Amino acid sequence: MKRKIGVLVDNLHLPIKEGIRKAKEVGADGFQVYVTHGEMMPENLTGSALAELKALVADLDLEISALCGDLGKGFLNPEVNREAVPRSKKFIDLATALGVRIVTTHIGTLPEDENAPEWKAGVQAVCELADYAHEHGCVFASETGPEAPTVLLRFLQQVDTPGFGVNYDPANLIMLGPFDHIGGVHVLKDYIVHTHAKDGICLLRKPGGGNDFMELPLGQGGVVFPYYLGALDAIGYDGYLTIERELMKREGSTEIEIMEGDRIGDIARAIEYLRSFE
């Protein structure tokens, strides 16, 4: 089976249009892109700029697999949500204008207790955004990682709208847990609309989070790709595997370090690696 492989184009560290062309050059079928800053922000991508981007994507025979609308603050704080919710609606509007079905984000680290105020604030905010997304033919998708898939499943069930889904990132589950990245596919099978192809290891698990971890090139970390891809096949997932290569490391502190590395080379090799399982 030929898999749809994408690239998180921001990871190429090139101007957007150059990055899109490079994604095509290295063999991707599509790409995901951040819309929270720079020329891809909704207020900057209007009129001729919007038309030019759509024409470039069409000319290269690519797809936009998803927009990334992660503001870095989550949705578990009502004060933050006063700004984050309307801002996220702008990302959904942009997705509609681009003909993109998925907007990804991080909702924040969910508490175990469903009665916690953070949990309730998150449900309220995400319900509003997911309903808005559904009205516009989109899905607002939370990325996996900081909590166990079973906890995220409970949250999804409370939101209970087809406008809310999951962007499944197996490496996040390993680095930030570690949680079962294979079994989690089956736990969240009804909600997975987009995935990241990323790898990494947990160096040290810390109570309360803030693990030490290292992101690694595909095939060099803890993600067991033959079984992970087999799990996606088993649930009938036929969407994108979008390669994310951030070169992240956290060790001995809560600060994330960005390491030196061959981003473009790692991404090109990741595409070849994923193709080897077809």
Structure, described:
It contains 9 helices and 12 strands. The chain is α/β, with parallel strands linked by helices and 278 residues long. It has one domain: TIM Barrel (Alpha-Beta Barrel), CATH 3.20.20. A hairpin with a 6-residue loop joins strand 11 and strand 12. Helix 3 packs parallel to helix 4.
- CATH fold-level label: TIM Barrel
Count of helical stretches: 9
Portion of residues in beta strands equals 15-25%
Kindly report the spatial arrangement of strands forming the biggest sheet: 1-2-3-4-5-6-7-10
Structural class computed from helices and strand pairing: alpha/beta
CATH class: Alpha Beta
Order of H and E elements? EHEHEHEHEHEHHEEEHEEEH
Low-confidence stretches: none
Spell out the CATH superfamily. Divalent-metal-dependent TIM barrel enzymes
